[in-house]
Amino acid sequence: MPTSEVIADKIAQSVGIVAGNALEYAMLLVYAVIVLAIGWVVGALVEKIVVRVLKRPEIETGLVNYGAATGKLWSNVVGFLGRFVFVWVVIAIFAATFGGPNPDSVVNCVFYAVSNLFVFSILVLCGVLTSGIMYKIAKDILAGAGFDASLRKHGMSETIGNIHISSAIAGVIKLYVVLMFLQEAANSVGTNEIKNMIAGLMAYISSAILGAAVLLVAVVLADFVAVLIKKKNYPFADTITVVAEGIILFFGIVLALPKFGIQDVTILTYSFLIVIAGLSLGLAMAIGLGLKDSVNSIAVETRRGRKKKEEV
After folding, report:
1. 122-181 pLDDT tens trace
2. Based on C-alpha coordinates, what's the Rg of the chain?
3. H or E segment to which residue 51 belongs
4. How many other C-beta atoms can be found within 10 angstroms of the C-beta atom of residue 203?
5. 114, 143, 151, 199: most buried, per Cβ within 10 A?
């Protein structure tokens, strides 16, 4: 049986160990608080420097003039970047002190995650600003080339809802630029699954934009051809216009659907052929039976017009 002195000695040893550990953890906690305080001060100073540099009037004025951002947007961006830099500096100082050589430690993992998020944010921000600049440049070039004026001249602006073609094309370019930077941002921080998902999304969006452009061209071209036919006052102009518009739109749809992921357009092709065959048969029967006199009178008038021109 252990004596009371032995028990007291073991208790004293245990208390000493606990007290020593508590003192060690307390000192470590104080040290951590001091490091955080130093990081807080340094981070605040760096934040002020970053905000002061980015808020210089010439920078904001240049970005606004080039269409990269509005004044309010840039103010919000500067505030976000300043706060993010502050957090990153605090974590960097803390990780440099307590992270140690092990890259898998909790402190280092947090630092790497915040750093990757910071890189991601910078790349996305660069994409947004660059896309704004490219949008303005593309819009000015296309507007100067007279695309919108040409559409208005031919009366086709109503076909696309009075949307300026220069703005539409510039918007597509802006979207492409944003997607390019977004993909780079994902490649810098994402896992393979995220990279593959964004790459697939980019491929589909790019293909869908091309499909939409094909449909838009088909609609504009169909309207343009319809206007030309009606101006020529051809016999059966309305019927010819409907058929011409249908053919142009059909080819536009057939070319555009694969861009939206619908690869098999066989049913649509056969349906179109059946409709064309039915229209041709109906038109032939109408001309042969019910419109014989009308066709004869139109032919007579056409021959008279030619003879008058020859006599003149």
Report:
1. 888 888 888 888 888 888 877 776 656 655 655 555 445 556 667 777 787 888 788 788
2. 36
3. helix 4-54
4. 11
5. 151
Residues in Cβ contact with 82 at an 8 Å cutoff, skipping those fewer than 6 apart: 47, 48, 50, 51, 54
User: What is the C-alpha separation between 232 and 98, in angstroms, rounded?
Assistant: 84
Q: In this structure, is residue 37 part of a structural domain? A: yes
CA 232 to chain CA centroid, nearest Å: 43
Q: Which two tokens stand for residue 175?
A: 């979207």
The answer to whether position 138 is within a domain reads: no
With contact defined as beta carbons under 8 Å apart, do 84 and 118 qualify? yes
Using the Cα atoms of residue 156, residue 160, residue 165 and residue 169 in order, give the sign of their dihedral. Answer: negative
- Give buried/exposed letters for 128-164 (b at 16+ CB in 10 A, else e): bbbbbbbbbebbeebbeeebbeebeeeebbebeeeeb
Each residue of 13-52: pLDDT tens digit? 666 666 656 666 777 788 888 988 999 999 999 999 999 9
Domain-embedded: residue 54: yes
Tokens of 258: 């694969």
And the tokens for 106?
């909790």
21 assigned to some structural domain: yes
Residue-number span of the structural domain to which 72 is assigned:
15-97
Output the pTM of the full model.
0.60
Instruction: State pLDDT tens for residues 181-225.
Output: 887 787 777 666 667 777 777 777 778 778 877 877 887 787 777
Tell me how far apart the alpha carbons of residues 82 and 68 are, in angstroms, rounded to a whole number.
19
d(CA 298, CA 292): 10
